[in-house]
Design goal:
50% helix, 7-stranded beta/alpha barrel
Length: 397
């Protein structure tokens, strides 16, 4: 399983008993097996292949730090948002000691002789990472053809019985909200599946444990710029495609607006950090400790060679670091996932931009809003005719 930072925070605050059970179970599993059941994930559910290299590093490092903060141990694996993948992302994950991830069968090339794997993927710089390959047809059969609890045995006979005769790992990977949210009886169905798997000779396991017991033997190649939820590579989040109905050109316009703003926010931050004699990117990577409440901003600066700053200099720099956090959060994948601009997901992205703009203005007196508004005018809702600029002005009121 993986637990995103937003959901984890909500559970901790509003359903703490559930959150505490998840953490305790992960801790117990790790103590028993020396590996965890949880996977880390990039902290803001960003489509990493569409991000700049420097931002990929930040998302991966922040995701690992968040995982350690919650579960108390290093993650072995990392879940990629929407399984969106390119070789550079895998290379950067491997550099951070991530050992494996999960992809779908249409995202790899090679003979899947070991079932779901794991398989070795060779990376630049003589690095490598392992991938587990989910059974897409089986995963979809459960996600979109969920049986009733009473129909589980018939479903298993149709979909699992013949697959169980094959050697190797059988992997179902799907959204957690499938069980209980999309399908109200999904939790009971999943429980019955796991309980009755042994009747077919199947033994439930976890990826971390299986990886340790069965190191990769065969090799596959990854198909760059692919995902599990778009038939057009990454177009669903980049420029729009027929995966969503209606006119999706707003997606490209919104992404360009966010990208232009991200560049401007980054330039302001880098200029200020370098003016103060600091390396901006390692400092930003370590800022996650402040977000997680592990230390305050002044302690972060002191530990990273900035104890010489005046109070005013430190305050400005911390505002710009906080702006970088909101700048990262503009790119949550759900911003571009659905069919229309005039929804709460794109609004959320623009709201994060508004906060980053305000913090930058506090720090420097510079207002980058006019250029952002100009770019947002080109993003138009096909349903209501409202533009991104309209959403921006609504949020600014």
């Amino acid at each position: 399983f993986n637990l995103g930072a937003t959901l984890a925070r909500w559970l901790d605050e509003h359903a703490h008993e559930v959150y505490a059970r998840i953490v305790a179970d992960e801790h117990a599993y790790y103590q028993a097996h020396g590996v965890g059941n949880g996977l880390a994930m990039p902290i803001h559910h960003t489509i990493l292949p569409l991000a700049r290299r420097r931002d990929k590093i930040c998302q991966i490092r922040w995701g690992i730090a968040s995982f350690i903060h919650r579960f108390g141990h290093l993650p072995e694996g990392m879940w990629l948002p929407e399984m969106a993948v390119d070789l550079e992302t895998l290379e950067l994950m491997a550099k951070e000691d991530i050992q494996f991830t999960v992809l779908s069968d249409q995202q790899v090339r090679g003979d899947l002789v070991d079932g779901a794997g794991p398989y070795r993927v060779r990376l630049p710089g003589r690095r490598e990472i392992a991938v587990f390959v989910r059974d897409r047809a089986l995963s979809d059969a459960l996600s979109f053809g969920m049986p009733s609890p009473e129909g589980v045995e018939a479903w298993m006979q149709e979909h699992l019985e013949w697959r169980a005769r094959r050697d190797g790992l059988l992997l179902i990977a799907t959204d957690g909200e499938t069980f209980g949210h999309h399908h109200r009886q999904g939790v009971e169905v999943l429980d019955r599946l796991l309980t009755r798997a042994s009747a077919l000779g199947l033994t439930p396991t976890t990826l971390g444990l299986y990886y340790r017991q069965h190191p990769p033997r065969a090799e596959v190649k990854v198909v760059d710029n692919t995902s599990w939820s778009c038939a057009h590579g990454l177009d669903r989040w980049a420029i729009g495609c027929s995966c969503t109905s209606g006119d999706s050109r707003w997606k490209g316009a919104l992404r360009r607006a966010l990208d232009n703003l991200a560049c401007e926010l980054g330039a302001v931050y880098v200029c200020e950090a370098q003016r103060l004699g600091l390396d901006p990117w390692p400092l930003r990577d370590r800022y996650i400790a402040v977000i997680l409440g592990q230390m305050d901003g002044m302690a972060l600066l002191s530990e990273n060679g900035a104890s010489h700053l005046t109070g005013d200099q430190a305050r400005r720099l911390l505002w710009l670091l906080e702006a970088q956090f909101y700048r990262q959060r503009m790119y949550a994948s759900c911003t571009f996932f659905f069919e229309d601009l005039d929804r709460h997901e794109p609004r959320y992205a623009i709201a994060n931009a508004v906060r980053a703009l305000a913090l930058t203005r506090y720090a420097t007196g510079e207002d980058l809003t006019p250029g952002f508004r100009r770019d947002l005018r080109l993003a138009v809702s096909g349903r209501t005719g409202r533009t991104g600029a309209d959403l921006l002005d609504e949020l600014l009121q």
